[in-house]
Write a structure and sequence with these properties.
The chain is of the alpha/beta class. The protein has 24 helices and 17 strands. The chain has 4 domains: 154 residues, DNA polymerase beta, N-terminal domain-like (DNA polymerase, domain 1, Orthogonal Bundle); 90 residues, Beta Polymerase, domain 2, CATH 3.30.460; 78 residues, Beta Polymerase, domain 3; 241 residues, Alpha-Beta Barrel (TIM Barrel), CATH 3.20.20.
């Protein structure tokens, strides 16, 4: 099982224990373990196998939880989870998909109203019965009604790209050990970098399809064979993902990779362009029609391309189009006009400007984060612990913040003297936009910062006009450099708050304020559409990890992938610059 599988299992246990009214300490232990495992980049299996190491070395993992992890790694089963599932009605799982409905509230609705489905919940809200349940009320009822559609959307049951990526990495490692497989690549929505993935597509170049399919069937993570033909096969893998395999000869590998990468809309437009040029394109190649077909004389074709994707695009007079852009927008027209962007790459990133330490809700110290960032080749970082409004994260008041900044000054002096890695640490803070307006720390403190992130964490249910006003007010503050996770969404968990994002982008462009692409896989906020709109308006974007641990720094690649889907280039991203050039860009801020 992958780390994501095990984290999900522990998260389910926590929900079910809370539903049954178990000890808050026991519930918290499983939730904390799930967070630790979810943030862990190194596979748990590797931790267990490493000499001199133990699963109990991980934060919050004691002997009991370590034993359960080992059981999951060995058998894929957690008996405790199976037992708990039998005690909780199936509808509870549906209800807990509604943002804002935790285990306790789901239980109250089931017990007091007899809710058996999301449809019944929607009706109960419209009839006003939910508001009458103790602990709910009109506002909660309205929020639930607004979120039921989100829970019912099948798109929100897909897994995160990062989770799918872990499965893809293991799958490719396995299939590349097959002697009969020459080229092995994953395609589909994973390759296009979509935020969520519903299934996986695998394309393999081989002359022995049977041997390749046998090898896939022997993968330990395959739980079921769904279909098997002469050259294609479908299996069920980790996280219940369906994996669709297609085996093709070398002459068709590029064509198959292009076809199964998609998107459907992109392929339709590509085939339309091919028809205009007297060609047909399918998963076997690009072909030129030699005769005009009629009822008596079917068309004959000659293959002109297929070995590589570049051949396919070249056959229709186009340069190769990066997979992240293949969504059926204007990418083919831009390619034809020679206007494809040179997309930003992970290697372009010089700094990370949003992260947390143990001073608030981070898991690692300031020194730990600095060393980890330097180890990843970063030239500068900003430490942006929470401001005082975020009490649940032990947010920093003026005194604690200034004490941390003094520590950063001393650290930078030591680093400049050669006592440590070559990296600069910016004195930062993530201030909160208050519900009534303003920020949770005064300007006299913020003006002493190198970097200020302003974010909205509370009052997310306020009306559209109020939320938009709060964000624009923060944008107009002369000391705020960037707006963090501007729409507040959590993928599969919580929809964005109601905000006029066009007005936010206009205000950012007018003031020279940056907007963030938060690289956390649950956020990826801004999304690719809004990132593209910000770029068009002249706003510079910042890709930051919002890391709460040293491992969290590795999600930068997810933010870069999101930027690529938005068509962003290196120059569009502020933190691809040297620190000196970033400071010049910051000097353009207008209040």
């Amino acid at each position: 099982m992958t780390n994501a599988d095990i984290a999900a299992a522990f998260g389910h246990v926590a929900d079910l224990l809370e539903y049954q009214g178990e000890s808050v300490f026991r519930v918290r232990a499983y939730r904390n373990a799930a967070r630790t495992i979810d943030a862990l980049v190194e596979p748990l299996a590797a931790v267990r196998a490493a000499p001199g190491r133990s699963l109990t070395d991980l934060d919050g993992i004691g002997a009991d939880l370590a034993a359960k992890i080992e059981g999951l790694l060995d058998s894929g089963r957690l008996p405790l989870l199976d037992e708990l599932r039998q005690r909780v009605p199936a509808v509870a799982f549906e209800l807990m998909r509604v943002p804002g409905l935790g285990p306790k509230k789901a239980k109250a609705l089931i017990e007091h109203l007899g809710i058996t489905s999301l449809d019944e919940l929607e009706v109960a809200c419209r009839e006003g019965r939910v508001a009458g349940v103790k602990g709910f009320g009109d506002k909660t009822q309205a929020a639930i009604l607004g979120n039921v559609a989100f829970a019912k959307d099948p798109g929100n049951s897909r897994i995160l790209w990062e989770e799918a990526d872990a499965v893809v990495a293991a799958l490719l490692d396995w299939m590349r050990t097959c002697p009969e497989a020459r080229q092995v690549e994953a395609a589909g929505s994973w390759r296009r970098g979509r935020e969520t993935v519903g299934d996986l597509d695998l394309v393999i170049d081989s002359e022995s399809a049977a041997a390749v399919m046998d090898h896939l069937e022997r993968w330990p993570d395959v739980t079921a064979v769904l279909q098997r033909g002469d050259t294609k096969m479908s299996v069920r893998g980790p996280r219940e993902l369906q994996i669709d395999l297609r085996v093709v000869p070398a002459a068709s590998f590029g064509a198959a990779l292009q076809y199964f990468t998609g998107s459907k809309e992109h392929n339709v437009k590509l085939r339309s362009r091919a028809r205009d040029l007297g060609l047909t394109i399918n998963e076997y190649g690009a072909h030129r029609l030699e005769t005009v077909p009629d009822e008596e004389h079917p068309a004959r074709t000659a293959t002109v391309a297929g070995r590589t994707e570049a051949e396919i695009y070249d056959a229709v007079g186009l340069p190769w189009i990066p997979p992240e852009l293949r969504e059926g927008g204007n990418e083919i027209d831009r390619a034809a006009a020679g206007l494809l962007p040179v997309l930003v790459e992970l290697a372009d990133m010089r700094g990370d400007l949003h992260m947390h330490t143990t001073a608030t809700d981070g898991e690692d110290t300031l020194s730990d984060m600095v060393r980890a960032a330097a180890g990843r080749g970063l030239e500068y970082i900003a430490i942006t612990d929470h401001g005082q409004r975020v009490t649940m994260a032990r947010g920093l008041d003026r005194t604690r913040l200034l004490r941390q900044w003094d520590e950063i000054d001393r650290l930078n002096e030591a680093l400049a003297a050669g006592d440590g890695p070559a990296i600069v640490v910016l004195k930062g803070i993530e201030v909160d936009m208050l519900e009534r307006g303003g920020l949770d720390l005064p300007d006299e403190v913020l003006q002493r910062a190198d970097w200020v992130v302003a974010s909205l964490h509370y009052g997310q249910g306020q009306p559209r006009e109020r939320i938009t006003t709060r964000i624009i007010e923060a944008i107009e503050n002369p000391f705020v450099r960037v707006i963090g996770h501007p729409t507040g969404r959590l993928i599969n968990r919580r929809p964005p708050y109601d905000v006029d994002i066009e007005a936010v982008i206009e205000a950012a462009a007018r003031t020279g304020t940056f907007l963030e692409i938060n690289a956390n896989p649950w956020r990826l906020d801004l999304d690719e559409r809004h990132a593209a709109a910000a770029r068009k308006a002249g706003v510079k974007l910042v890709i930051s990890t919002d890391a709460h641990s040293t491992q969290g720094l590795d999600v930068m690649r997810c933010g870069v992938l999101q930027a690529r889907r938005g068509g962003l280039e290196k120059d569009d991203i502020a933190n691809t610059r040297t620190l000196a050039d970033l400071r010049k860009l910051m000097a353009n801020k207008r209040g």
